[in-house]
Amino acid sequence: MKATQLRALQEPLKQKYRDDPTMAVTPIGARGDLRDKGITATVDGWAGPVRAGLHPATGGDGSDACSGDMLLQALLACTGGTLRSVATAMGLEIRSAVLRAEGCFDARGTLGVDRTVPVGVTDIVVTAVLDTDASEQELARLAKSVERYCVVGQSLQQPPRFVVRPNFTPDGSRG
Fold first, then answer.
1. What is the pLDDT of residue 94?
2. Global pTM value
């Protein structure tokens, strides 16, 4: 896609959001359940259901997806799409890219071994190896823009409110 095509697609949306900012608030969601056995949750994704379970560092056997890895996969999906969009808008040709996201978590936090240890993934770094003729200055601008406009990355930088709400089952009993 060329920058002019991208602008033609996005400009009507941008104008709509300028005219009525409430139209820009876009709901997103995910669904899952406990259909599978074990200490797992099954999440319905674009490619089908994914069964996630405990990481081996917290008692899993490695046969289920790790939700921390899934978080990094979501970050890479957003980073890659944002990178392509920004590169297109900048007029940069990216012939190919290999993306990698890495982070870590301290299992003592999630296992409750040490309450002073944070629970969560920390020190996340995304590396993008690009085949491009872009200059170092253009690549630096590209990286800053991707960091600025990647929804998942910004959600990790400035975490949203997180609430778990137990609810009733459809038959009216407590869930």
1. 96
2. 0.88
